[in-house]
Amino acid sequence: MKNTKNKLPLIINSIIIVFEIIGCIMCAKHGLSVLQYYTVLSNIFALITSTLYVAFYLKTKNSIPIAVSFLRYASTVCLTLTFAVVLFIFVPLAGFSVMVEGVQIFHHLLCPVLSFISFVFFEKRKTLSKRHIFLSLIPTFTYAAVIIVLNILRVVEGPYPFLMVYRQSVVVSVIWFFVINGMALLTAALLRI
Predict the structure, then answer these.
(1) Domain spans, the chain
(2) What is the pLDDT of residues 48-67, one digit of tens each?
(3) Per residue, what are the HEC states of the chain?
């Protein structure tokens, strides 16, 4: 039984890899424009980190380096944030279908949930410091900064309603910035425990 539990992170991360590949293939028909979505970027990040995890798991017999554990943590923060935004913002606005239709079954539901379960309950890791909380937010803050500037410059619109700076007041945009990034910080802090 213990041997099976020790292999669960390997199994779950392998499933994540398969689901992420399916999701990426499904997104590929839309070309590079999908890279404007935090959801897609966070899932690509998860594909990379789960692949690293599986490679090191197999090579080192489950002795995962802190750098790989941190990357898994950071990608799990991103995926958990994706799940939370979909659940608490998009589902009330557009219905449950935004979580389960097409590629979203992988990107909005299965991969975030599997990543959370694996990281929180099964992956052996060294203790992450408080510094890691803030480092894990770099992908989210970088995305926010870049996409907001691109919205201001009218290079892109959105792609999410809360990023459409010309369709809402500056105050609303600032509130959304703090709500989303506050959710990211809370997620990172809770996942580190």
Answers:
(1) 2-192
(2) 999 999 999 999 887 899 99
(3) CHHHHHHHHHHHHHHHHHHHHHHHHHHHCCHHHHHHCHHHHHHHHHHHHHHHHHHHHHHHCCCCCHHHHHHHHHHHHHHHHHHHHHHHHHHHHHCCHHHHCCCHHHHHHHHHHHHHHHHHHHCCCCCCCHHHHHHHCHHHHHHHHHHHHHHHCCCCCCCCHHHCCCCCCHHHHHHHHHHHHHHHHHHHHHHHC
- Count Cα atoms within 13 angstroms, Cβ side, for 192: 19
165, 173 in Cβ contact below 8 A? yes
Q: Check pLDDT > 90 for residue 5.
A: no
- Segment among 4-13, 41-50, 110-119, 139-148 with least mean pLDDT: 4-13
Tens digits of residue pLDDT in 118-172: 999 999 888 899 999 999 999 999 999 999 999 999 999 999 988 998 999 999 9
